Structures are given as structure tokens and as C-alpha cells.
Amino acid sequence: MDIKALVSQMTLEEKAGLCSGDDFWHTKAVERLGIPRSMVSDGPHGLRKQDEAADHLGINDSIKAVCFPAACATAASFDPDMIREMGEAIGDSCQHEKLSVVLGPAVNIKRSPLCGRNFEYFSEDPYLAGRMAAAVIQGIQSRNVGTSIKHFALNNQEHRRMSSSSDADERTIREIYFPAFETAVKEAAPWTVMCSYNRVNGVYASENPWLLTEVLRNEWGFDGYVVSDWGAVSDRVAGVAAGLDLEMPSSGGVNDRKIVEAVKAGKLDEKLVDRACERILKIVYRYLENAKPETPWDKEAQHAQAADIAAECMVLLKNEGGILPLDRQDEIAFIGEFARKPRFQGGGSSHINCFRTTGALEAAEGLKVAWARGYDVAADDAPEEMIAEAVAAAKNAKAAVVFAGLPDSYESEGYDRSHMRMPDCQNRVIEAVAAANPNTVVVLHNGAPVEMPWIGKVKAVLEAYLGGQAVGEAAVRVLFGDANPCGKLPETFPLKLEDNPSYLYYGGEGNVTEYREGVFVGYRYYDKKKMDVLFPFGHGLSYTAFEFSGLKLSAEKIKDTDTLTVAATVKNTGSRAGKAVAQLYVGDAESTPIRPVRELKGFVKVELQPGESREVSFTLDKRAFAYWNTQIHDWHVETGAFTIEIGESSRDLPLCGTVQVESTVELPRRYTMDSIFMDVMADPKAKEILMPVIRRTMAIFGHDDREGTSEAAREAVTEDMSMAMMNYMPLRGVFSFGGGITPEEAGELLAKMNA
Ligand code: BGC
């Protein structure tokens, strides 16, 4: 299809019309030219296709579909290949349902445990989120349907989500909040990007030229269309100019008319409207020309796939005395409403109308499992009879498994959590059961960290996250050892909410949220502060054990334009087959910029039989060592030593090596009379030019000869102090303290230093 030619035949009114939706889920048709409507649908972990009454909050029914594990869970798999396959399945369902674009993945960073929508997001770590996002996009788009990576950008809270401004500094945005989008755009080329509701540093994302054009298109090479989150448009005309192509769902024609008027009044270049239409139609036709509605949608097969994936996502947080796996022959008590009816997805626009769901109780049919309700999902306090019933069931069993977590009312799209606790009734039931049976296990269903006041009293904790419609089957497989847990935490579980770095500022004041913790999000903060945490980023146990050895670096010294290959050997030293995740972290050992101790820059998941070992390898390029430099507005590596650590979690890193990285980029330096001596002396070229003056000044500060001074004078001005005085003194100090040069000479020296 010659899109340009097609757009050239459209009237201004038709073009403005095409820039907004026909209804909740369709782009507009232009019948005169044979342009059809095209349908999009939520997303992200399955389809929420509304055939009849439509809304963006999950209120009205959608077609029966398959709910795969949500992103909070799939991130824990650390398995992009598996997530790519999940994407392929979702892509097939889209083809079957005639959907051109599925609205996801959602890749916003889990800045605080409180974000109501954390369950839809991958991680506190941008590298992990980026790898997962790219994989799911590649999977879906391999079926010739599009994705809409969302919500671009800095949409990390639900509180005042449509008005709040997320205010962060350039480096924080580049290092923490952009990379998941950047990696996905560069590696997986999503067909569309959804801008967020919020403002970024004061400007709505939907009319932000820096976000939507400069960064997204000019820097990262995005070539699809940008769609607004549903109702995210404030100034439509500014949006067209900034690079917002499609407004969804619509403005009832109001904004279309504004576009027409702005063009007629010479306030908006018609070419920009053409550009938006071309981008939209390119995607409409890319789908249409590859539509395959005959693609089968085998929901049963996808249910089985969802169960397999859910099992790979579960994170075994604690397993004292190897209580898990349970023995199939033993009498076990399952306790909790979630054992019967698990919480496996979150509320809001991602809510899927599942064709089937399996709870753990149902999945355990045939085993010697008794059940007690334990608590009421909708209530906060626990009636005594319910607790007594749970205790009785626990007492009669070899082991008790309490299925607990967060109810929908605690965690949902549209609002944030106000604390990090589970409902009181659930905590009480866990305590009571643990007191009645020493072999108590807790299975958690939640989209983000919770406090665990009972952690010392239970033997095991299995984090199931929101594991999709087959989570019950997966939980039973893991509990009874048919599957060996291999998920790793994609986020830190702090001991308490107040420990979280965003705690003081999260939610903001009025319509402004300042990201004052900067780049110190998640483990980047806890590690820098050497804080105890409940469970660290990357943590997850297995029923077998792994040993890491043989760290090999391809070089001791590289330039920032080279790549470094890192290899290590992982061995399964236990007696069961299992999967290890080798995690690689890089740290700048001697850094001038204030940087995290370590940052995840690679991971590999390997399956190993008992006794088997395998070499895993990683390739590190400039980005693995770089920070965002705000002077050159680019990634920069500071020359020096970097640590390379490998292990099983951010706090279990048995292998450590060092590489020297040399920068090939010289940062621009501009000296003035306000530059201080210390900075000049760190620059060999400038130091040489200034040496005569430095020598004379050093003499004044007593650096050259302390011998002849009296004891009293030596006590008054220690060597350290005189050194510091000199170091921190601006060059203009040479006039105050007799550097022996004239202003003209100083000017000449500066000119040479800056040459
Ligand atoms: C959500 C999006 C969603 C859209 C359409 C919005 O409220 O923020 O994630 O895709 O609705 O349902």
C-alpha cells in the first residue's frame, strides 16, 4: 500500500479524524478511500477484547480468553526465551481475534512497593525490564500483530495519574526510567508506543516533543505510531506537533476540530497531520496485509502453557530444613480462600475474562489435602471460628500451606497502596497456623512486596506473584516437587516500607512528584546503604544447589569501544535437576560520579542435571560500564577499574573480577578563574601549563617546606588542612595569596588551558 499517496487523497477533516479513535477500541475508517477500521485491545498478559460495551477499566465483560502470568511474575522467570513463546501465543490469539495491536507490555519501573499497578510491571531494575519487554514484543510481533509498549514515561504511581508531574533529573531518567523502553524499541521495534497520562518535568507526556520525538524517534529509531493512554490528551494540537499520532479513545470530535482549525489558522503545519496519518496507516496496513484470522486459538494448549510458565516464575524465598517439596503421601492442610480461588491477576484494564481458572485445591485433587477457609478475602479481621478451623486443620496435618497475599482491594489499577502490609486477618491466620504446626508453608499471591511479620515462624515461603489463570496447578507442582522452583526476585523485598528509597517522596505533593532518590532505586539504594533487607533482588532458592567457579575475563584492560567477554562455570551440586540463573553485576570501583555499588548487566538461565556443569558467558559493551553524563548528554565511561561479580542474587556473588576500562572520549573541560586547583591538577595538560603558578601557591600554603615552621604554626595548620585549602581554592586565589601573576598573565594561561 502506498501510504503517502493514500494520505494525499484525504481531506484535512478526514486526516484530523483519523488522528483519534472511532470508538473505544477502533481507529477510524475512511470509506470513501476504502480505509478500514482497525481494532486494538488490552493487554498485556492475554486479551481483554470487548465485543460489546466498552471501557478502559475492565468494567464491562470481554471475550473469554487466557490469562498468562502478569509481568510481576514473568519477570521473575529471568527467562526471555520462555516469555517470547508466551508472546507468540498471545500473538496467535490476536490474529484469531482480528486485533491489530495488543496494548502492552507495561514496562514502568517498580519505584515503590506502593504503586497500585506494580503487578503489571516487570521490575525495579531497568536492564531486566528491558530484556523481558523486548522478548514479549518479539514474540507477539512474530505473528504480525503489533504491541504498544506503555506507559511512556515515568508513570510509576497511580495516585493522581492523570495530572501529576513526575519530576526527575536527566541522569535518573536516562539510567532508570528510560532503558526498558529504549532496549525494547531498539531490539524489538514495537509497532506502537503508548504515552502515559502524567506529565514529565511539567509537560504532559502526550504533548512532550522531547519524549515523543527527540528521544523516542530521533535517538532510538522508533518508527511506528504513538497512541495516547486512554484519555491522556490535554492539548491535542500541541500533541500532534510533539509526535502524538493517535488519540484514544476519542474526544467526541472536539480535538479533531481543533486540529483542523489550527491548520487553517496557520498554527499547525498540515504536514504534521499528514505525518501522523501516515504513521497510523502504516501500522493499520501492516496488520491488514498480514492478517490471518484463520489462525487457531487453542485455549486449552495455552492454559497448559500458562501453567508451565507460572511454575517457572515462582520464587522460593525460604525453605528451612528443606521442608519443601512436600511428600505426596502425607496429609497436608491447605488453608486460605486463595487456595480455592487464587488471586492470579490484578484489577483494571488488564483484567481478563478467563475461560478457565485452576486453584491449588482443585489441582491437588487425588492428594491427601484438607482445606480450611482461614480468612475472608473481603475482610480485614478474622472471625475466631475461621481461625479455629484453620488451626484444627493444621494440627491434623503433617504440614500446613497457607495461601495468602493481597486482595484486589489492596492492589489495583487506579490507586496506590497506602502501606505494605497484608490484611490483618491473613497475618493472624498465618501466625495461628504456624503456632499449631511447625511445618507451615506460605504461598503468596501479590504483585509487589509485602511485609512478613511472621517470617521467623514459618518454614517456607513461596512467592507465586499474580501467576495467571493456571497458577494453582503451578503451585501444586512446585509444592510437591514436580517442578523445581527457579524464579528469582525481580525486586527487593525491604523489611519495612519506610526502608524504600522513595518512601519520603512517593506520591508527591499535590500534582508534583519529585524523584528525589535519583538513580538509587531498589537494590541500587539498599546496597549503597549496606541495609538489611527481607529478601534481596535476584534471590530465589531451588530444591537443588549450584556452585559457581572459573571466572574468566577476555581481557584485563579494554577501551570503552571494545567488548568484554565474561565466562563462568555453574555446577549443579545437588541431587535434582534444576535451573540456575547466573546474574552478572558491574560496579565502578573508583568512581567520580556517585553511582550504585553494582548494577545488573547480564543474566543467563541454565538447566542442569545433578552433577552437570556448564559454562555460561556474557558480552559486555560500553553501556555495561557507562553512566549518563549530563555535561555531554550522553553515556560515558570513566577510565578506571570496574568490578564484575557473578552469582545467584545481588547479595550472593561468589565470583568477582576486575577489568580496567579506558575511556576514548575526553570530556570537555572549560577552566575559568573559579575552577579550583584540585580539578586543574587532575588534568595533566592543564596542570603542566599552570605548574609555575601552582608551585608558587604551594609554597604559600606551606606544601613545599614544613621543616622551618614553628610547632605552634604546625599545630594551627596541619598538612592535611593546608593541602585541602590549596585543593579547594579557586584559581582566582592566586591574586589574594600572592601567586605572583597579573590578571593578563592569568588570562593567557587560561586560554592555553582551554585550547
Ligand atoms: C490504561 C492502559 C490501557 C488503557 C486501555 C488505561 O486506563 O492505563 O494501560 O491500555 O486504559 O484500556
Q: Indicate the structural class.
A: alpha/beta
Give the names of the bound compounds: beta-D-glucopyranose
Query: If helices are DSSP runs of H or I spanning 4 or more residues, what is the number of helices?
Result: 25
Q: Record the strand order, biggest sheet.
A: 1-2-4-5-7-10
Low-confidence stretches: none
Distance separating the two termini: 55 Å
Number of strands: 28
Structural overview:
With 755 residues, this protein is of the alpha/beta class. The chain is 31% helix and 19% strand. The strands form seven sheets. It has a six-stranded mixed β-sheet, sandwiched between helices. Strand 8 (199-200) and strand 9 (203-204) form a beta hairpin. The longest helix is centred in the middle third of the chain and has 19 residues, at 270-288. The two termini are 55 Å apart. Beta-D-glucopyranose (BGC) is lined by residues 42-43, 56, 103, 150, 229-230, 349.
